[in-house]
Amino acid sequence: MVGYLAQRLATGFVTLFGVALIVFLVMRVIPGDAAVMMSGAGSGVVSQEELQQVRHQLGIDRPLVVQFADWATHVGKLDFGTSLRTGSPVIEDISRRFPYTLEIVVLSMIIAVGLGVPAGVLSAWLAGTWVDRILQTITIVGLAAPSFWIGLLFILGLVFFFHWSAPLFWQPIWMDPLASLSQLIWPSLAVGLRQLALIRTARAKGLSERRVVFRHALWNGALPIITLIGFEIAALFGSLIITESVFSVPGLGQYVVQSILDRDYPAAQGIILILAAIVVLGNLAVDMLYGLLDPRTRVQGARA
Amino acid sequence: MTEVTSDALAAYAGFQPAIAPPQPTRAARVMRLMLRQPLGTMGAIVLLVMLFAAVFAPYLSPYDPTAGDPAALYKPPSALYWLGTDAFGRDILSRLIYGARISLIVGFGASILGVVVGTAIGVTSGYFGGWYDSIAQRVMDAMLAFPMLLLALAMAAALGSSVHNVIIALAMPIVPRAARISRASTLVLKTTTFIEASRAIGCSNLRTIVQHILPNTFAPLLVIATAYLGLAIVQEAALDYLGAGIQEPQPSWGLMMSGSATSLALTAPWIVLFPGLAITLVVLASNLLGDAIRDVLDPKLQRTNL
After folding, report:
1. What is the arithmetic mean of pLDDT over A89-105?
2. In terms of pTM, does the model score above 0.90?
3. Which helix (H) or strand (E) holds A32?
4. I need a labelling partner for B260 at 20 to 30 A (CA). Which of A72, A73, A219, B170 fits?
């Protein structure tokens, strides 16, 4: 188990290095650099010399190899360099925004598992009845609807029926937990509903275990659901990114979109690398958890 | 000694004389398949209708999709404008019909491009193995670690926003997934005797791959291509919504929804409502078609969202 873990960690590290390299190169291909974006060139006021000066200040006129080595050093120091937009270390920007995103992730997971698993088990229990049909239809249609549209519909409904308005200030959870939860419950619901694939899995698992005691069906359902959560981490980030933009929550999703669009290299590179690391570590954790829950997979895993 | 005819023998054995059972015609087989997969058939019909609308958009749409009527801003659905008008007084229905072009071109384009490139990488790396395989696998792993939308977003921003760049950007996340599956089936095929035989009689590597391996990886790849068709359409809309994809005044479903929902809620909710419904319908149709194709081609394949 320990040898396997070490081997998996090593591959994960190589993967992350590949991610870093790809991100770095893709960001450099983007036409129009940060200097142009910052100085508002195109208006014709800024001269080439001034642009060159801004580039020099930002350090983006150096050879790519030097820039990559520089960035790698900052990643090693865990500060991820300085954001070209905000001027503060990327890690500070990220840690300021992380709590909002984490809160949405946790809330939406609770919603997805809390609604999805009972619904799936119920669907399997009543297989073939109208309850099952309705639940399955909801799942299939729900999986087809784009997450940002669901978010937009939520906003439309909230404004229309409750005269809701988007908060100007989003409460961090440690300042005022209740206010924070009540603000973030809506984006979380929009993200959580996207994870309805859980119903399918729970139903499929529940069907084969129908005659067994309820508790057992739930327990056996846990394994495929854990796997699915592993698969879904990356997909979850996808819907997070866009839902945060829809609700304008000041979280990581909105940050990464803005960083890419503004060509803020260090910020975009840093946050993408961190998200990829979470995906890699998440998958690793899922595999380990799987080994703990189901001894059969452990042997296979060790041999692989 | 009487002559023993085959008919006599057959009668002796209790067989009916050899009347060939009627061979079902191609149309009849398709019909039967469609009846067995009603949901998939529905999906195919919806997609065909969308395709028809996209191709004949100029004849079907009642108004010019890009020219707005300044006298008809934010008009609710009516007999004149069936689905209402947007902030520039442009007819939503006409924009939806023209938008189907972009959605379908990008959806089909990205999933086909992604599967073709991914298969090329997967089949060759599975077939040749060695250091080429290791490097290809590490690169694919790195690409898989990206959230799909982020990779597409970064690529779209990098390449600039035109239809073919958006197709390339959205094909990127499909490549590693197609590569993985085609590599796995190539590895299995490589151990079979008919591939060994084809090499033994002196087929070149290229001939073995093109004539013997590729046709056998076709079924799972068709399944992936349809599975990613819907995903590519959603992601395209998301890119447009975020402002990294197709730009105004081109009619694209994602673009039609961008803008402030908060302010639209009370004045013109239909602007947000209908494009989303259109996306949901297309994605639903392609998912149902994909499920049906998978059930027909490979019943053993698991129902997971790859």
Report:
1. 88
2. no
3. none
4. B170
Q: Which residues of B114-125 are buried (b: 16+ CB within 10 A; e: fewer)?
A: bbbbbbbbbbbb
Distance, first Cα to last Cα, chain A = 12
Q: How far apart are CA A119 and CA A135, in angstroms?
A: 7
Q: Do B279 and A146 touch (CB under 8 A)?
A: yes
Q: Is A82 helix (H, G, I), strand (E, B) or coil?
A: strand
DSSP assignment of A138-169 equals HHHHHHHS-HHHHHHHHHHHHHHHH-----SS
Residues 6+ apart with CB under 8 A from B248: B255
Both tokens of B224, joined, read: 């992936």
pLDDT for A69-87, tens place per residue? 888 888 888 788 888 788 8
Across the interface, whether the CB atoms of B234 and A256 are under 8 A apart is answered no
* Nearest-by-Cβ selection for B283 from A144, A165, A246: A144
Distance (Å, rounded) from C-alpha B63 to C-alpha B91? 6
pLDDT tens for A261-274 read: 887 888 888 888 88
Best mutation site among A19, A152, A272 for testing chain B: the one with the most B CBs within 10 Å?
Answer: A152
Query: How close A142 gets to chain B, by Cα (Å)?
Result: 9
What residue ranges of chain B have pLDDT lower than 50?
1, 301-306
SS3 A211: coil
The complex's ipTM works out to 0.78
Question: What is the residue type of A234?
Answer: A
Q: State the virtual CA torsion across A22, A23, A28, A34 in degrees, nearest 10.
A: 180
Alpha carbons A159 and A167: distance in angstroms, whole number = 12
**Residue A248, number of CB atoms within 10 A of its CB:** 15
Q: Which residue has the tokens 């067994």?
A: A212
Angle between helices A177-194 and A90-125 (to 10 degrees): 60
- Two tokens, residue B19: 């009347």
To the nearest whole Å, the CA of B149 is away from the closest chain A CA by 5
Rounded to a whole number, what is the distance in Å from the CA of A172 to chain B's nearest CA? 22
